[in-house]
């Protein structure tokens, strides 16, 4: 090997890395919360809503699931201004992540809703609950619990996917790593450290969400 | 220490070049790279008497190409600074590179101080970025993008008010988008481009330096600059 | 006296398959009715129609004098407040504790305040012998206990009629008794009960009237002692003999 | 400067789509084979093997594919082994795909009732026979729809192979944008192309799933 | 005569929960043993230990004089060729036809050639009354038919001992009889049988010896007529009375 590693050259820039981690986590947190809400709403629309709404949601879900995230991001940031929507890079990143997670969450949650035993709904009906009460109090909580692991995985995929948000100057973790390496050319060190941080983040996030799901959601 | 021998033995040189940086490196309708850097790469290969393999690279991965010997040279609008010199070696400069600030006529920007409170896009990790970071007042909203493409696109989409990039890139952009009324504001830095060589590959570096010196003398370098940049190289550091 | 449930010429088909072929039935307040019959004879379908879980094609059905109207969600909800139902496989809500299973409908539908609903729930749980299980989750209970919670849950809405569809069929034999004892006490207290059951000795002991369904019709009906001792139709004879086999 | 017509843009993107398809196939075949091996390792009673597989899955599901590709291409070269972009892409995409497929398939196997294993065991079949004749044939059937569905993720994942020098759809799109300064048009075509590649696969996966569910009832 | 199954001081725990607390049992060739007891008393666990599906912590277990050794896959496979098992929910392989369900193990384990295995299978299916179902898929059969196929499948390995764990519990009442008749015919032909069952009348009629398990121990054991008529322990008394409740 002819190059020598100097990880300290990267770690010396820890404030930048820390800021990157904070952004990555912040983006993920906001988009996870809103994305899951979007997913619930769309899943409801797809299984219970009026036909036109089902169709609209169907188109949304298919469009998002069949194109890469980075293309969606570029569209929102570079394309929407042409239609008069001007967004900061951070806002564009959050919107892209919400839109992306929302589409996947819709499908995941819908699967959970469909797995609801018929008897649960009948029991709720025979207790005189109305449609909304049945959905929110009887059908949704067990469905969410059932699909929670898949949702957590998808949230982590979205977090890892946020690495491309740096390309529109959102200062998340991969942006920080890239900025550091483009200054001192220590690309390996920067990427290895970033990869390790991502791994730690996804392990920690999965733990946290699994714990929080069991503790607060159900 | 063997790069030059390997090149001469295999009769092939691998050179990393940009594709996102008109007029230094960009693609034609056939997606074949062209531009000043590409011509320079071909020129060096011809002088060495070997075939050339062009490797399109990005800002992020051009140095690893060199470090892992996937490329022998990097000719990719590479600026020099002391940090970078710890990792790779540089030859003499081969082309000029003026970094300037651009904005629509409606915005008044006379010097760095006027950038305060305005947003500006720049390519992350480029010399442009480093210079701008040095001179821009703290109140400037600095937006660093992944590559030159995103930098210019963000400006054209109106996501930022001003743009810092190479004079030539801006020229191409202004020609395509006259409606924006973009104009030159002030020069940020005159930062010529160097060729990157693997750390310690002194023989290869020396050889390339000889070729550059010769090209300077023969006027080939100026000819290239006139063809792609519209003017001669001017003074270049060694 | 006006019957609490009144069914006239009720017909119900699943597509081409006619399952109920004209049911006439009047149930008086406080009556305990046991419904028996072969698998597929339409017993469950009949109960589900009374609760409005199934839409029927012909005939009329009224509870407490109010005709059942499928097109009006509000009137369906009113009906269901009068008619409780207990299912073969309990259908407790798995994500809610026992107490919250019972309290859910009173707080949501009857808008009871929390304290009141809780007091009522504790009383009901005591009545079904599960006072100490208020905070347990359904999956921590045995089948018999779950079914007793389901009974408490249905009672919490203070229904006039209770429908029970084979509520002990999914239970281990040793757990059947505890559920039947609760049902028996309800019968004694004057609750109107319609129950589909395979427990013949229980049906005989508890019910005022026994209905034998066969191929979508009430085939034979009368006091249980009479029907068991002296079945009139060959179908009932055969059914009864198949049980003691 | 060069002028790109819409046709030039589309034509170049279509040519680049060949690489997207080729990379996807490599990833899928390689990932499938390795994923199967991982699955079997995960199912054996050996705790060490199970740990290894779960660590492997965690590593490749817990880091961005972008970084994996980068480190595979340049990282292997650091140890003096010269890799072509093809090998590197094949290695990185295979690692990535296999981690996901192994997880998907493990879920399918886990959904086979325990009684099936026990019945096979009590008939004196050995582990391999239990797997080969009883569990895998059943798991395979439920595994096909999610596996085909994951192919879509693989296709989209290849977008990142540009870091190691592949000019597939996304990279071609970026290059063309640089020459044309028309990001909106170019990215529309890019999105359209991905959609055209992925949507039929999604539809097919969904159809398979529906058919399977129907046959289950 | 050497017992075909010999169990000595067998103890088995799931973590801290000791489920079998020292079982001693000798089964002679041709004996028919019925095991009864409350839910959770360890009946299934005992059968599963004999078949090697569960690992036990203490004691010894041998079949046909061969000690059970969990560490040797080969000896486990030999054991399982001598001991067949039938489960509550049939566990037929849903992707294989009835015939191939029965033939699978003989061809794989005993290396029978196809023709021979097929002939044997047809004979066995005839014996359980399903000769014409050779090519049917399991999900086309009723529960009772599926369970009879499961019996044929176990018999195809020509085991010396057959373990049956509540094999009629998942069946509709009218299908129980057809399965029990098959088991009875096996008993008459001299098969060694250990069966956990809730069908008391059947246990009484068919078995040579009845075992009452309670809290992980053989609590009472003896000829069925005796145990039913004259239970010695209060636990058995209570268990029997809960059944006739
Ligand atoms: N949702 C449904 N769709 C179509 N047919 C149905 C449906 N539910 C029941 N049936 C049919 O209606 C008939 C009567 O069914 P029902 O459940 O009322 O019988 P049952 O008397 O309750 O039988 P069991 O004792 O098995 O519960 C049966 O032939 C059944 O196949
Ligand atoms: N896999 C397991 N893990 C932990 N505990 C178990 C497991 N299987 C059984 N048990 C426990 O072992 C005890 C005996 O269970 P077992 O299934 O042998 O009872 P059983 O007599 O067969 O009851 P049933 O009549 O309900 O089938 C029970 O307390 C049960 O909770
Ligand atoms: Mg029924
Ligand atoms: Mg058991």
From TrEMBL, chain A:
Organism from which the protein derives: Caenimonas sedimenti
Official protein name in the record: Amino acid ABC transporter permease
Transmembrane regions: 20-45, 66-85, 151-169, 190-209
Location (main, coarse): membrane
Topological category with respect to the lipid bilayer: Multi-pass membrane protein
The keyword Transmembrane helix is annotated on this UniProt entry: yes
InterPro entries xrefs: AA_ABC_transptr_permease_3TM, ArtM/GltK/GlnP/TcyL/YhdX-like, MetI-like, MetI-like_sf
Cell membrane keyword on record: yes
UniProt-annotated location(s): Cell inner membrane; Cell membrane
Any GO CC annotation of this UniProt entry: ATP-binding cassette (ABC) transporter complex
Matches recorded under PANTHER family: ABC TRANSPORTER PERMEASE PROTEIN, MEMBRANE COMPONENT OF AMINO ACID ABC TRANSPORTER
Keyword entries, A-Z: Cell membrane, Membrane, Transmembrane, Transmembrane helix, Transport
Domain ABC transmembrane type-1: 21-209
Any one GO molecular function term: transmembrane transporter activity
PROSITE patterns tied to this protein: ABC_TM1
One Pfam family recorded for the sequence: BPD_transp_1
Domain of life: Bacteria
UniProtKB/TrEMBL annotation, chains C, E:
The keyword tRNA processing is assigned to this record: no
A family per Pfam: ABC_tran
The keyword Membrane is annotated on this UniProt entry: yes
Domain ABC transporter residue range list: 5-240
Listed CDD domains: ABC_HisP_GlnQ
GO molecular function, one term: ATP binding
GO cellular component: plasma membrane
This protein's UniProt keywords: Amino-acid transport, ATP-binding, Cell membrane, Membrane, Nucleotide-binding, Transport
SUPFAM superfamilies named among the record's database cross-references: P-loop containing nucleoside triphosphate hydrolases
Main location (coarse class): membrane
Protein location: Cell membrane
Recorded topology in the membrane: Peripheral membrane protein
PANTHER family in UniProt: AMINO ACID IMPORT ATP-BINDING PROTEIN, GLUTAMATE_ASPARTATE IMPORT ATP-BINDING PROTEIN GLTL
Protein family per UniProt: Belongs to the ABC transporter superfamily.
Official protein name in the record: Amino acid ABC transporter ATP-binding protein
Organism: Caenimonas sedimenti
Taxon lineage: Bacteria, Pseudomonadati, Pseudomonadota, Betaproteobacteria, Burkholderiales
UniProtKB/TrEMBL annotation, chain D:
Gene Ontology cellular component terms for the protein in this record: ATP-binding cassette (ABC) transporter complex
GO terms assigned for molecular function: transmembrane transporter activity
Annotated ranges, domain ABC transmembrane type-1: 17-205
Biological process (GO), any one: amino acid transport
Alphabetical list of Gene3D superfamilies matching this protein: MetI-like (1.10.3720.10)
Main location: membrane
Annotated CDD domains: TM_PBP2
Assigned keywords, A-Z: Cell membrane, Membrane, Transmembrane, Transmembrane helix, Transport
Membrane topology: Multi-pass membrane protein
Membrane-spanning residues: 20-41, 62-81, 142-164, 184-205
Cellular compartment(s): Cell inner membrane; Cell membrane
Family annotation (InterPro entries): AA_ABC_transptr_permease_3TM (IPR010065), ArtM/GltK/GlnP/TcyL/YhdX-like (IPR043429), MetI-like (IPR000515), MetI-like_sf (IPR035906)
Family: Belongs to the binding-protein-dependent transport system permease family. HisMQ subfamily.
Listed name of the protein: Amino acid ABC transporter permease
């Amino acid at each position: 090997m002819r190059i020598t590693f100097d990880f300290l050259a990267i770690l010396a820039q820890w404030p930048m890395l820390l800021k990157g981690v904070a952004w990555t986590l912040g983006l993920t947190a906001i988009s996870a919360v809103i994305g899951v809400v979007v997913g619930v709403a769309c899943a409801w629309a797809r299984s219970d809503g009026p036909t036109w709404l089902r169709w609209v949601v169907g188109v949304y879900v298919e469009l998002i699931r069949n194109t890469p995230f980075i293309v969606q991001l570029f569209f929102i940031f570079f394309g929407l201004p042409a239609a008069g929507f001007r967004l900061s890079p951070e806002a564009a990143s959050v919107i892209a992540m919400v839109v992306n997670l929302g589409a996947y969450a819709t499908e995941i949650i819908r699967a959970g809703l469909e797995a609801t035993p018929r008897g649960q709904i009948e029991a709720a009906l025979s207790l005189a609950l109305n449609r909304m009460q049945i959905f929110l109090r009887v059908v949704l909580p067990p469905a969410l619990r059932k699909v929670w692991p898949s949702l957590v995985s998808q949230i982590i995929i979205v977090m890892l996917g946020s690495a491309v948000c740096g390309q529109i100057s959102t200062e998340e973790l991969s942006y920080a790593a890239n900025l550091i390496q483009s200054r001192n050319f220590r690309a390996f060190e920067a990427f290895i450290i970033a990869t390790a941080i991502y791994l730690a983040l996804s392990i920690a996030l999965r733990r946290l969400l699994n714990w929080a799901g069991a503790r607060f959601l159900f | 220490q063997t790069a030059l021998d390997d090149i001469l033995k295999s009769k092939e040189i691998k050179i990393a070049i940009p594709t996102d940086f008109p007029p230094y490196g960009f693609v034609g309708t056939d997606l074949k790279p062209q531009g000043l850097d590409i011509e320079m790469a071909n020129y060096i290969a011809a002088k060495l008497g070997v075939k050339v393999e062009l490797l399109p690279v990005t800002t992020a991965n051009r140095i690893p190409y060199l470090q892992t010997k996937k490329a022998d040279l990097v000719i990719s609008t590479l600026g020099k600074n002391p940090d970078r010199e710890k990792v790779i070696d540089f030859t003499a400069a081969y082309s000029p590179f003026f970094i300037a600030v651009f904005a629509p006529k409606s915005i008044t920007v006379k010097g760095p101080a006027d950038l305060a409170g305005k947003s500006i896009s720049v390519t992350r990790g480029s010399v442009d970025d480093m210079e701008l970071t040095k001179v821009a007042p703290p109140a400037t909203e600095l937006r660093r993008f992944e590559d030159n493409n995103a930098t210019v696109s963000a400006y054209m989409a109106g996501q930022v008010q001003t743009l810092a990039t190479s004079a030539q890139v801006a020229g191409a952009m202004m020609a395509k988008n006259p409606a924006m009324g973009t104009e030159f504001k002030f020069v940020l830095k005159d930062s010529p481009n160097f060729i990157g060589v693997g750390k310690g590959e002194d023989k290869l570096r020396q050889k390339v330096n000889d070729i550059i010196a010769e090209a300077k003398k023969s006027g080939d370098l100026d000819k290239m600059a006139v063809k792609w940049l519209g003017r001669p190289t001017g003074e270049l550091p060694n | 006296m006006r019957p609490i449930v009144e069914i006239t010429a009720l017909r119900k088909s699943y597509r081409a398959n006619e399952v109920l072929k004209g049911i006439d039935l009047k149930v008086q307040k406080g009556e305990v009715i046991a419904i028996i019959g072969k698998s597929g004879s339409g017993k469950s379908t009949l109960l589900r129609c009374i609760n409005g879980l199934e839409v029927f094609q012909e005939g009329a059905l009224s509870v407490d004098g109010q005709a059942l109207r499928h097109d009006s969600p509000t009137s369906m909800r009113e009906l269901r407040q009068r008619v409780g139902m207990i299912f073969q496989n309990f259908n407790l809500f798995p994500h809610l504790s026992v107490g919250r299973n019972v309290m859910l409908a009173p707080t949501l539908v009857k808008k009871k305040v929390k304290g009141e609903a809780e007091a009522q729930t504790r009383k009901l749980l005591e009545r079904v012998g599960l006072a100490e299980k208020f905070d347990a989750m359904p999956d921590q209970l045995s089948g018999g206990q779950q079914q007793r919670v389901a009974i408490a849950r249905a009672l919490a809405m203070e229904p006039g009629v209770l429908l029970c569809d084979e509520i002990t069929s999914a239970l281990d034999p040793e757990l059947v008794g505890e559920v039947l004892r609760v049902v028996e006490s309800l019968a004694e207290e004057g609750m109107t009960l319609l129950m589909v059951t395979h427990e013949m000795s229980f049906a005989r002991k508890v019910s005022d009237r026994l209905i034998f369904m066969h191929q979508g019709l009430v085939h034979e009906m009368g006091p249980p002692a009479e029907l068991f001792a002296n079945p009139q139709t060959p179908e009932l004879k055969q059914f009864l003999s198949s049980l003691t086999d | 400067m060069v002028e790109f017509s819409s046709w030039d843009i589309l034509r170049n993107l279509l040519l680049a789509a060949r690489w997207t398809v080729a990379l996807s196939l490599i990833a899928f075949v390689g990932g499938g084979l390795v994923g199967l091996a991982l699955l079997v390792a995960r199912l054996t009673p050996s705790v060490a093997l199970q740990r290894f597989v779960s660590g492997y899955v965690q590593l490749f599901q817990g880091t961005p594919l972008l970084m994996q590709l980068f480190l595979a291409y340049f990282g292997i070269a650091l140890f003096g082994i010269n890799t072509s972009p093809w090998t590197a892409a094949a290695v990185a995409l295979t690692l990535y795909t296999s981690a996901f497929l192994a997880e998907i398939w493990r879920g399918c196997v886990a959904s086979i009732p325990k009684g099936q294993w026990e019945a096979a065991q009590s008939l004196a079949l050995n582990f391999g026979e239990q797997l080969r004749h009883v569990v895998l044939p059943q798991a395979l059937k439920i595994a096909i729809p999610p596996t085909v569905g994951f192919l879509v993720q693989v296709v989209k994942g290849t977008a990142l192979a540009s870091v190691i020098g592949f000019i597939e759809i996304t990279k071609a799109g970026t290059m063309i944008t640089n020459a044309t300064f028309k990001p909106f048009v170019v990215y529309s075509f890019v999105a359209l192309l991905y959609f055209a590649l992925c949507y039929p696969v999604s539809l097919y996966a969904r159809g398979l799933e529906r058919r399977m569910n129907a046959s289950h009832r």
